[in-house]
Amino acid sequence: MMDVAQQIWQNPELGYLETETAALLISELEGHGFLTEAGVGDMPTAFVARRGSGDGPVIAILAEMDALPGFSQAAVPHEEAVAGLSSGHACGHHLFGAGSVAAAIALADYAEAQGLAGEVRLYGTPAEEGGSGKAYLARSGALDDVDAVLHWHPGGSNSASQGASLSNVSAKFRYRGQAAHAALAPDQGRSALDALEATTFMINLMREHVPQEARIHYVISNGGAAPNVVPDFAELYLYVRHQDPAVVADIYARIQRAAEGAAMGTETEVEFERISGVYSVLPNDTLGRLMDQNLRAATPIEWDADETAFARELQATLRKQPDISEAFEIEDYDFGGVGYYSSDVGDVSWIAPTVGLSTATFVPGTPQHSWQAVAAGGMSIGHKGTAYAARALAATGAELLQTPELIDQAKAEFLNAWGEGFEYEALVGDRMPPLDYRVE
Asked: Domain containing 21: what range?
Protein backbone atom coordinates (compact mmCIF):
# COMPACT_ATOMS: atom_id res chain seq x y z
CA MET A 1 0.00 0.00 0.00
CA MET A 2 2.98 2.32 0.41
CA ASP A 3 3.41 2.17 -3.38
CA VAL A 4 -0.08 3.65 -3.62
CA ALA A 5 0.79 6.40 -1.15
CA GLN A 6 3.92 7.20 -3.11
CA GLN A 7 2.05 7.40 -6.41
CA ILE A 8 -0.38 9.89 -4.86
CA TRP A 9 2.53 11.86 -3.32
CA GLN A 10 4.17 12.11 -6.75
CA ASN A 11 0.93 13.32 -8.36
CA PRO A 12 -0.68 15.69 -5.83
CA GLU A 13 -4.21 16.76 -6.72
CA LEU A 14 -6.14 19.62 -5.13
CA GLY A 15 -9.60 19.54 -3.58
CA TYR A 16 -12.37 18.18 -5.83
CA LEU A 17 -9.75 17.60 -8.54
CA GLU A 18 -8.46 14.28 -7.13
CA THR A 19 -9.47 12.30 -10.24
CA GLU A 20 -6.42 10.05 -10.56
CA THR A 21 -6.08 9.66 -6.80
CA ALA A 22 -9.67 8.50 -6.37
CA ALA A 23 -9.35 6.14 -9.33
CA LEU A 24 -6.21 4.58 -7.84
CA LEU A 25 -7.81 4.03 -4.42
CA ILE A 26 -10.96 2.60 -6.02
CA SER A 27 -8.86 0.23 -8.11
CA GLU A 28 -7.07 -1.07 -5.02
CA LEU A 29 -10.33 -1.64 -3.18
CA GLU A 30 -12.04 -3.34 -6.12
CA GLY A 31 -8.99 -5.59 -6.46
CA HIS A 32 -9.70 -6.78 -2.92
CA GLY A 33 -13.37 -7.54 -3.40
CA PHE A 34 -14.99 -4.21 -2.50
CA LEU A 35 -18.00 -2.94 -4.42
CA THR A 36 -17.60 0.77 -5.14
CA GLU A 37 -19.86 3.69 -5.92
CA ALA A 38 -18.38 6.93 -7.24
CA GLY A 39 -19.77 10.45 -7.39
CA VAL A 40 -21.40 10.33 -3.94
CA GLY A 41 -22.89 13.53 -2.54
CA ASP A 42 -22.69 15.35 -5.92
CA MET A 43 -18.87 15.17 -5.74
CA PRO A 44 -17.21 13.37 -8.69
CA THR A 45 -14.18 12.29 -6.62
CA ALA A 46 -16.11 11.12 -3.56
CA PHE A 47 -16.76 7.39 -3.34
CA VAL A 48 -17.98 4.59 -1.08
CA ALA A 49 -16.52 1.07 -1.13
CA ARG A 50 -18.36 -1.80 0.59
CA ARG A 51 -17.45 -5.35 1.54
CA GLY A 52 -19.16 -7.80 3.89
CA SER A 53 -22.63 -8.89 4.90
CA GLY A 54 -25.55 -6.59 5.55
CA ASP A 55 -26.78 -8.31 8.73
CA GLY A 56 -24.24 -6.91 11.19
CA PRO A 57 -22.68 -3.58 12.20
CA VAL A 58 -21.44 -1.16 9.57
CA ILE A 59 -17.89 0.03 10.34
CA ALA A 60 -16.76 2.98 8.25
CA ILE A 61 -13.22 4.22 7.67
CA LEU A 62 -12.57 7.68 6.23
CA ALA A 63 -9.90 8.33 3.59
CA GLU A 64 -8.81 11.87 2.74
CA MET A 65 -6.79 12.51 -0.41
CA ASP A 66 -6.43 16.19 -1.38
CA ALA A 67 -3.17 18.10 -1.59
CA LEU A 68 -2.39 21.76 -0.91
CA PRO A 69 -1.32 24.42 -3.40
CA GLY A 70 2.18 25.85 -3.15
CA PHE A 71 4.08 23.00 -1.49
CA SER A 72 6.25 21.47 -4.18
CA GLN A 73 8.98 19.58 -2.31
CA ALA A 74 11.27 16.60 -2.86
CA ALA A 75 11.74 13.85 -0.27
CA VAL A 76 14.96 15.40 1.03
CA PRO A 77 15.71 17.07 4.41
CA HIS A 78 16.24 20.51 2.91
CA GLU A 79 13.93 22.80 0.96
CA GLU A 80 13.93 21.70 -2.67
CA ALA A 81 11.02 22.07 -5.07
CA VAL A 82 10.16 19.40 -7.65
CA ALA A 83 10.27 20.62 -11.22
CA GLY A 84 6.81 20.71 -12.78
CA LEU A 85 4.91 20.50 -9.49
CA SER A 86 3.23 23.47 -7.82
CA SER A 87 1.31 21.50 -5.16
CA GLY A 88 2.22 19.01 -2.47
CA HIS A 89 0.89 16.79 0.30
CA ALA A 90 1.76 19.14 3.15
CA CYS A 91 -0.97 17.64 5.34
CA GLY A 92 -0.17 14.02 4.52
CA HIS A 93 -3.47 13.15 2.91
CA HIS A 94 -1.73 10.75 0.50
CA LEU A 95 -0.78 8.75 3.59
CA PHE A 96 -4.25 9.21 5.09
CA GLY A 97 -5.95 7.81 1.99
CA ALA A 98 -3.59 4.90 1.40
CA GLY A 99 -3.39 3.96 5.09
CA SER A 100 -7.17 3.95 5.47
CA VAL A 101 -7.56 1.77 2.38
CA ALA A 102 -4.98 -0.66 3.81
CA ALA A 103 -6.89 -0.78 7.11
CA ALA A 104 -10.22 -1.38 5.35
CA ILE A 105 -8.78 -4.25 3.31
CA ALA A 106 -7.14 -5.83 6.37
CA LEU A 107 -10.34 -5.50 8.40
CA ALA A 108 -12.52 -6.97 5.65
CA ASP A 109 -10.09 -9.89 5.16
CA TYR A 110 -10.11 -10.58 8.91
CA ALA A 111 -13.90 -10.39 9.16
CA GLU A 112 -14.29 -12.82 6.26
CA ALA A 113 -11.72 -15.26 7.67
CA GLN A 114 -13.39 -15.19 11.08
CA GLY A 115 -16.92 -15.40 9.71
CA LEU A 116 -17.92 -12.11 11.37
CA ALA A 117 -21.20 -10.50 10.36
CA GLY A 118 -21.01 -6.89 9.35
CA GLU A 119 -19.94 -4.55 6.61
CA VAL A 120 -16.67 -2.68 6.17
CA ARG A 121 -16.95 0.63 4.31
CA LEU A 122 -14.28 2.94 3.02
CA TYR A 123 -15.40 6.51 2.29
CA GLY A 124 -13.19 8.43 -0.12
CA THR A 125 -13.60 12.01 1.09
CA PRO A 126 -12.33 14.83 -1.15
CA ALA A 127 -11.50 18.45 -0.46
CA GLU A 128 -10.90 18.44 3.28
CA GLU A 129 -8.71 21.51 2.89
CA GLY A 130 -11.40 24.17 2.85
CA GLY A 131 -13.88 22.33 0.63
CA SER A 132 -15.99 20.67 3.37
CA GLY A 133 -16.23 17.41 1.42
CA LYS A 134 -17.43 15.34 4.37
CA ALA A 135 -20.15 17.87 5.15
CA TYR A 136 -21.69 17.19 1.74
CA LEU A 137 -21.39 13.45 2.33
CA ALA A 138 -23.14 13.85 5.68
CA ARG A 139 -25.84 16.04 4.13
CA SER A 140 -26.45 13.45 1.38
CA GLY A 141 -27.36 10.75 3.89
CA ALA A 142 -24.51 8.47 2.76
CA LEU A 143 -23.51 7.83 6.39
CA ASP A 144 -26.94 7.48 7.97
CA ASP A 145 -26.77 3.69 8.47
CA VAL A 146 -23.20 3.61 9.79
CA ASP A 147 -22.65 2.26 13.33
CA ALA A 148 -19.11 3.57 13.97
CA VAL A 149 -16.61 5.69 12.05
CA LEU A 150 -12.82 5.39 12.26
CA HIS A 151 -10.27 7.84 10.91
CA TRP A 152 -6.70 8.97 11.48
CA HIS A 153 -4.38 11.81 10.56
CA PRO A 154 -0.66 12.09 9.88
CA GLY A 155 1.30 14.03 12.49
CA GLY A 156 4.51 14.28 14.45
CA SER A 157 3.49 12.13 17.42
CA ASN A 158 1.27 9.19 18.36
CA SER A 159 -2.00 9.77 20.17
CA ALA A 160 -5.56 8.48 20.43
CA SER A 161 -6.78 11.33 22.66
CA GLN A 162 -10.26 12.56 21.80
CA GLY A 163 -11.39 16.17 21.89
CA ALA A 164 -13.67 18.69 20.26
CA SER A 165 -12.82 21.15 17.52
CA LEU A 166 -14.55 24.35 16.40
CA SER A 167 -17.57 24.55 14.13
CA ASN A 168 -16.96 26.92 11.27
CA VAL A 169 -18.84 28.82 8.57
CA SER A 170 -16.95 30.68 5.88
CA ALA A 171 -18.60 33.00 3.39
CA LYS A 172 -18.00 35.72 0.87
CA PHE A 173 -20.07 38.91 0.99
CA ARG A 174 -20.14 40.72 -2.35
CA TYR A 175 -21.20 44.37 -2.46
CA ARG A 176 -22.23 46.23 -5.62
CA GLY A 177 -22.55 49.98 -5.93
CA GLN A 178 -22.13 52.71 -8.54
CA ALA A 179 -18.74 53.76 -9.89
CA ALA A 180 -17.86 57.43 -10.34
CA HIS A 181 -14.82 59.72 -10.42
CA ALA A 182 -13.89 60.11 -6.77
CA ALA A 183 -12.88 63.78 -7.22
CA LEU A 184 -14.99 65.13 -10.10
CA ALA A 185 -18.31 63.44 -9.29
CA PRO A 186 -18.25 61.68 -5.92
CA ASP A 187 -21.93 62.48 -5.42
CA GLN A 188 -22.75 60.24 -8.38
CA GLY A 189 -21.07 57.22 -6.79
CA ARG A 190 -22.28 54.69 -4.27
CA SER A 191 -19.31 52.95 -2.73
CA ALA A 192 -19.35 49.18 -2.37
CA LEU A 193 -16.26 49.57 -0.19
CA ASP A 194 -18.17 51.88 2.17
CA ALA A 195 -20.76 49.14 2.63
CA LEU A 196 -18.05 46.58 3.31
CA GLU A 197 -16.29 48.80 5.84
CA ALA A 198 -19.59 49.55 7.58
CA THR A 199 -20.10 45.82 7.89
CA THR A 200 -16.67 45.21 9.40
CA PHE A 201 -17.21 48.11 11.82
CA MET A 202 -20.39 46.46 13.04
CA ILE A 203 -18.66 43.06 13.24
CA ASN A 204 -15.98 44.52 15.47
CA LEU A 205 -18.61 46.11 17.73
CA MET A 206 -20.35 42.74 17.83
CA ARG A 207 -17.29 41.04 19.34
CA GLU A 208 -18.32 42.41 22.75
CA HIS A 209 -21.67 40.70 22.46
CA VAL A 210 -20.85 37.15 21.36
CA PRO A 211 -19.62 34.24 23.51
CA GLN A 212 -15.99 34.87 24.36
CA GLU A 213 -14.91 31.53 22.84
CA ALA A 214 -16.18 32.62 19.41
CA ARG A 215 -13.78 33.55 16.63
CA ILE A 216 -14.58 35.96 13.80
CA HIS A 217 -11.88 36.70 11.25
CA TYR A 218 -11.96 38.22 7.81
CA VAL A 219 -10.01 39.70 4.93
CA ILE A 220 -11.02 42.28 2.34
CA SER A 221 -10.50 40.14 -0.74
CA ASN A 222 -11.47 42.97 -3.10
CA GLY A 223 -11.55 46.60 -2.05
CA GLY A 224 -11.54 48.35 -5.40
CA ALA A 225 -8.89 48.97 -8.04
CA ALA A 226 -7.91 52.64 -7.82
CA PRO A 227 -8.25 55.37 -5.15
CA ASN A 228 -9.72 57.90 -7.62
CA VAL A 229 -12.62 55.62 -8.55
CA VAL A 230 -15.58 55.06 -6.26
CA PRO A 231 -15.57 51.24 -6.03
CA ASP A 232 -18.61 49.64 -7.58
CA PHE A 233 -17.57 46.21 -6.26
CA ALA A 234 -16.06 44.97 -3.02
CA GLU A 235 -15.76 41.55 -1.43
CA LEU A 236 -15.40 40.44 2.18
CA TYR A 237 -14.23 36.89 2.99
CA LEU A 238 -14.93 35.86 6.57
CA TYR A 239 -14.97 32.92 8.99
CA VAL A 240 -17.07 32.38 12.11
CA ARG A 241 -16.01 29.69 14.60
CA HIS A 242 -17.27 28.28 17.91
CA GLN A 243 -17.48 24.80 19.40
CA ASP A 244 -21.29 24.83 19.29
CA PRO A 245 -22.61 24.76 15.70
CA ALA A 246 -25.81 26.50 16.83
CA VAL A 247 -23.77 29.47 18.11
CA VAL A 248 -21.93 29.65 14.78
CA ALA A 249 -25.23 29.69 12.89
CA ASP A 250 -26.59 32.45 15.15
CA ILE A 251 -23.50 34.69 14.85
CA TYR A 252 -23.36 34.22 11.10
CA ALA A 253 -27.03 35.22 10.77
CA ARG A 254 -26.34 38.36 12.82
CA ILE A 255 -23.43 39.28 10.57
CA GLN A 256 -25.61 38.82 7.51
CA ARG A 257 -28.18 41.21 8.96
CA ALA A 258 -25.40 43.73 9.67
CA ALA A 259 -24.27 43.48 6.05
CA GLU A 260 -27.82 44.02 4.81
CA GLY A 261 -28.09 47.10 7.04
CA ALA A 262 -24.75 48.40 5.75
CA ALA A 263 -25.93 47.98 2.17
CA MET A 264 -29.16 49.79 2.92
CA GLY A 265 -27.33 52.66 4.58
CA THR A 266 -24.92 53.11 1.67
CA GLU A 267 -27.52 52.57 -1.08
CA THR A 268 -25.68 49.53 -2.38
CA GLU A 269 -26.54 45.86 -2.71
CA VAL A 270 -25.05 42.81 -1.06
CA GLU A 271 -25.18 39.10 -1.89
CA PHE A 272 -23.89 36.17 0.15
CA GLU A 273 -22.11 33.00 -0.85
CA ARG A 274 -21.54 30.44 1.87
CA ILE A 275 -18.24 28.83 0.91
CA SER A 276 -18.04 26.11 3.52
CA GLY A 277 -19.41 25.05 6.86
CA VAL A 278 -18.42 22.28 9.25
CA TYR A 279 -19.52 21.02 12.64
CA SER A 280 -17.25 20.66 15.62
CA VAL A 281 -15.89 17.18 16.26
CA LEU A 282 -18.11 15.34 18.76
CA PRO A 283 -15.64 13.15 20.70
CA ASN A 284 -16.51 9.66 21.92
CA ASP A 285 -14.69 8.35 25.00
CA THR A 286 -15.84 4.75 24.56
CA LEU A 287 -14.28 4.52 21.13
CA GLY A 288 -11.32 6.66 22.16
CA ARG A 289 -10.25 4.28 24.93
CA LEU A 290 -10.63 1.34 22.56
CA MET A 291 -8.47 3.05 19.93
CA ASP A 292 -5.86 3.94 22.55
CA GLN A 293 -5.62 0.29 23.64
CA ASN A 294 -5.12 -0.86 20.07
CA LEU A 295 -2.56 1.82 19.32
CA ARG A 296 -0.53 0.64 22.32
CA ALA A 297 -0.87 -3.00 21.25
CA ALA A 298 0.24 -2.41 17.66
CA THR A 299 3.84 -2.95 16.56
CA PRO A 300 5.45 0.45 17.23
CA ILE A 301 7.44 2.65 14.88
CA GLU A 302 11.18 2.10 14.59
CA TRP A 303 13.61 4.09 12.44
CA ASP A 304 16.87 2.84 11.04
CA ALA A 305 20.10 4.85 10.98
CA ASP A 306 19.36 6.49 7.63
CA GLU A 307 15.88 7.58 8.73
CA THR A 308 17.26 8.94 12.00
CA ALA A 309 19.91 10.93 10.13
CA PHE A 310 17.25 12.30 7.75
CA ALA A 311 15.12 13.30 10.73
CA ARG A 312 17.95 15.09 12.52
CA GLU A 313 18.94 17.04 9.43
CA LEU A 314 15.34 18.03 8.72
CA GLN A 315 14.66 18.90 12.36
CA ALA A 316 17.48 21.45 12.24
CA THR A 317 15.23 23.53 9.94
CA LEU A 318 12.34 23.62 12.46
CA ARG A 319 11.61 26.28 15.07
CA LYS A 320 10.55 23.64 17.59
CA GLN A 321 12.83 20.63 18.00
CA PRO A 322 11.42 18.15 20.53
CA ASP A 323 13.23 14.93 21.19
CA ILE A 324 13.05 12.55 18.23
CA SER A 325 11.94 9.80 20.61
CA GLU A 326 8.43 11.33 20.47
CA ALA A 327 8.00 9.50 17.17
CA PHE A 328 8.20 6.17 18.99
CA GLU A 329 6.20 6.99 22.13
CA ILE A 330 2.45 7.23 22.72
CA GLU A 331 0.98 10.25 24.45
CA ASP A 332 -1.17 9.70 27.54
CA TYR A 333 -4.83 9.31 26.67
CA ASP A 334 -6.94 12.40 27.26
CA PHE A 335 -10.60 13.13 26.63
CA GLY A 336 -12.64 16.31 26.31
CA GLY A 337 -10.15 18.99 25.33
CA VAL A 338 -10.90 21.60 22.67
CA GLY A 339 -8.66 22.21 19.69
CA TYR A 340 -8.88 25.62 18.02
CA TYR A 341 -9.12 24.22 14.51
CA SER A 342 -11.95 23.12 12.24
CA SER A 343 -12.38 19.86 10.32
CA ASP A 344 -15.13 18.38 8.20
CA VAL A 345 -14.76 15.18 10.22
CA GLY A 346 -16.97 17.13 12.60
CA ASP A 347 -20.07 16.64 10.46
CA VAL A 348 -19.48 12.89 10.33
CA SER A 349 -19.08 12.75 14.12
CA TRP A 350 -22.61 14.13 14.59
CA ILE A 351 -24.05 11.42 12.29
CA ALA A 352 -22.42 8.37 13.93
CA PRO A 353 -20.01 7.67 16.83
CA THR A 354 -16.57 8.63 15.53
CA VAL A 355 -13.00 8.09 16.69
CA GLY A 356 -9.63 9.15 15.34
CA LEU A 357 -5.94 8.90 16.06
CA SER A 358 -2.69 10.46 14.92
CA THR A 359 0.63 8.75 14.25
CA ALA A 360 4.15 10.03 13.65
CA THR A 361 4.48 10.23 9.89
CA PHE A 362 6.50 13.46 10.21
CA VAL A 363 9.60 14.36 12.19
CA PRO A 364 8.60 15.54 15.71
CA GLY A 365 8.16 19.31 15.75
CA THR A 366 7.02 19.46 12.12
CA PRO A 367 4.05 21.77 11.58
CA GLN A 368 1.42 20.53 9.20
CA HIS A 369 1.18 22.55 6.01
CA SER A 370 4.96 22.83 5.70
CA TRP A 371 7.57 21.66 3.20
CA GLN A 372 9.05 19.52 5.98
CA ALA A 373 5.77 17.58 6.17
CA VAL A 374 5.87 16.96 2.42
CA ALA A 375 9.48 15.76 2.61
CA ALA A 376 8.97 13.18 5.38
CA GLY A 377 5.66 12.08 3.90
CA GLY A 378 7.40 11.14 0.68
CA MET A 379 9.78 8.60 2.21
CA SER A 380 9.93 5.74 4.69
CA ILE A 381 9.33 7.87 7.82
CA GLY A 382 5.88 8.68 6.49
CA HIS A 383 5.30 5.13 5.35
CA LYS A 384 6.13 3.59 8.74
CA GLY A 385 3.78 5.95 10.58
CA THR A 386 1.05 5.09 8.09
CA ALA A 387 1.45 1.35 8.62
CA TYR A 388 1.25 1.95 12.38
CA ALA A 389 -2.04 3.82 11.99
CA ALA A 390 -3.48 1.17 9.66
CA ARG A 391 -2.76 -1.58 12.21
CA ALA A 392 -4.51 0.33 14.99
CA LEU A 393 -7.51 1.16 12.80
CA ALA A 394 -7.97 -2.41 11.62
CA ALA A 395 -7.64 -3.81 15.17
CA THR A 396 -10.22 -1.33 16.47
CA GLY A 397 -12.63 -2.22 13.69
CA ALA A 398 -12.15 -5.91 14.42
CA GLU A 399 -12.99 -5.47 18.10
CA LEU A 400 -16.15 -3.58 17.20
CA LEU A 401 -17.28 -6.34 14.83
CA GLN A 402 -16.57 -9.00 17.48
CA THR A 403 -18.04 -7.06 20.41
CA PRO A 404 -21.35 -5.41 19.46
CA GLU A 405 -21.86 -4.21 23.04
CA LEU A 406 -18.97 -1.77 22.52
CA ILE A 407 -20.95 -0.23 19.68
CA ASP A 408 -24.01 -0.03 21.92
CA GLN A 409 -21.96 1.80 24.59
CA ALA A 410 -20.53 4.19 22.01
CA LYS A 411 -24.01 4.91 20.65
CA ALA A 412 -25.45 5.58 24.09
CA GLU A 413 -22.66 8.08 24.78
CA PHE A 414 -23.15 9.60 21.34
CA LEU A 415 -26.89 10.14 21.79
CA ASN A 416 -26.36 11.64 25.23
CA ALA A 417 -23.86 14.12 23.77
CA TRP A 418 -26.40 15.11 21.13
CA GLY A 419 -28.72 16.55 23.74
CA GLU A 420 -32.48 16.97 23.59
CA GLY A 421 -34.10 17.58 20.23
CA PHE A 422 -30.94 17.67 18.10
CA GLU A 423 -31.40 17.35 14.36
CA TYR A 424 -28.45 17.54 12.01
CA GLU A 425 -28.65 20.47 9.61
CA ALA A 426 -25.55 21.03 7.51
CA LEU A 427 -23.78 24.36 7.99
CA VAL A 428 -22.97 24.39 4.27
CA GLY A 429 -26.65 25.13 3.74
CA ASP A 430 -28.24 23.98 0.50
CA ARG A 431 -25.46 25.03 -1.85
CA MET A 432 -23.85 22.50 -4.19
CA PRO A 433 -20.25 21.47 -3.49
CA PRO A 434 -17.84 24.17 -4.76
CA LEU A 435 -16.14 21.88 -7.26
CA ASP A 436 -14.14 24.75 -8.78
CA TYR A 437 -12.81 26.28 -5.57
CA ARG A 438 -9.25 25.18 -6.37
CA VAL A 439 -9.45 25.98 -10.08
CA GLU A 440 -7.33 29.02 -10.95
From this structure: 2-165+280-418
